[in-house]
Structures are given as structure tokens and as C-alpha cells.
Task: structure prediction
Amino acid sequence: MNKTIRPALFCLLLAFQLPGFASPLLPRADAVPGGVAVVSLNKTDEPAPRAYFGKRRVMVRKNRHHWEAVVGLPLNSKPGIQRLRIKSADGAQYYREFSITAKKYDTQYLTLKNKRMVNPSASDLKRIARERKIILGALATWNDKPEVQSTFILPVDGRLSSPFGLRRFFNNQPRKPHSGLDIAAAEGAPIKAPAEGTVITTGNYFFNGNTVFIDHGQGLITMFCHMSRIDVKPGMHVNQGEVIGRVGMTGRVTGPHLHWSVSLNNTRVEPKLFLLNE
Result:
């Protein structure tokens, strides 16, 4: 083998080893509101540090010769310099800065025949408040799994109908931005686990309908909504590609589809960043 390394190849190899360069792992770095920042930390000859964005702990993984933090960025993040607080295994503390770039998302207008799904009744609001605690509790799940499968497959075969981040209006009334990816598919189509993980909980909720939450480790959670059937139970381990249920139109919907959310450090982020072919 020729021992002379071409300059372009040398630069490519070096880019995957130095801090501050793009990670070859998924999710892809896209430091925008609703995106993911990947921040290089100390070398892997030291124990894994802990990293925090605000008060929330974030995923830390090994990437060749360095540890790196994988940070979910809220949709309401302001552009500019942000920083992570890093705590080494010996208790020392330091900071790493990164920059968030502005992004504008499209607007979507939807018309719902069921007016309660736009303006819930007083009893509906009580139910929604109870369910919100359960949903937020599931999305805040954390476990110290050392290796996380973060390369996802699309959970259902279908058309990507509503992208992540849309500024939404229901019957011309503004609502929160779209926190997931909608995949239109026939009712009863199989829904597959995008990666290996453990089912946190399942339930039927006012807006989300039949829903499953899967914990993939270190604050990476996926949520699957509007299902017609749930085929898993809390505590079950699932492998990538294993069927967890079927597409439906339960909850607030205009037709059969899967609403798929990806949550990282309790922050909903762009699911496409975790897919190889997107």
C-alpha cells in the first residue's frame, strides 16, 4: 500500500478526530431551533463526563477519540452563542460554547370538524391536564445506558405528510408548533420501533389518541400517536424493526397517519436528523 496519503484524504480523516468538526454519527448536527447540536468534549482516555444544557442533562457518547454531547435544541431557542456545563468524573467543571442559527418554519392551516379538538370543554381540559403530566413524565425519562442506538429507521412506510416545526392553525386559531413528523399511511399499517429500546408507558389521550413511548437511553425518547392498536406493554424490550402497533386515526386527526416525535433531553427535535437516508 502506498504510504503517501493524499492531502484531501488526510484532511477528511483529521476532521473526524479533532473536536469541533461534524460527527460521522447520527443524529446529524443541525444547530437550529428544533435541531441538534453535537459538541466535542474531552478525550476518551478520560472517564465519560456529564453534560448539562440549562438544568437538563444531555446525552454523552464516544466518537472515536473524544466524548461528545448530543443536545436537543427547543423550537423557541434564540439564535446566538449558547453553552454547555460539563462536569468531569473527578468533579471539575468547565463549559463548552456552541452557536444556534436561526430557522423559519412553514405555516399549516387545518380544518377540524370536531370542534372539541380545537376548543375543548371544561371536562376535556381536566382530562388534558391529567394526561399532560403523564406525557411529560414519560418524555423526561432518563437512564444511564452507556451505548444508545441513535441511527433510526422510519417507523412506518408512508408519505411524509406534515413536517416537523410547522406553525399550526386549527380552524384559523394558532396552536403550538408541530412537534413531530406525520406519516400518512393506511389504517392498520404496521408501526415499527425505529431503534432498540424499552417501552416506558402506553395510553389513550385526548389529543394524541392511542400512544406508545419508547426509551432508547440517555434522554432519547420516541413517541407514537393516533394508533389504532397497541401491541406492546410497559417494560417490554423492543428491537429495531419490531412491530409495536398499527396506524390509526384516534385523537385529534384529519385522517389515518402516525405522528412520530423524537425527544432529546426532554426537547422535541427534528426526527429526520436520526434517519440515514434523509
In short: Confidence is low (pLDDT under 50) at residues 1-21. The first strand starts at residue 36 and ends at 43.
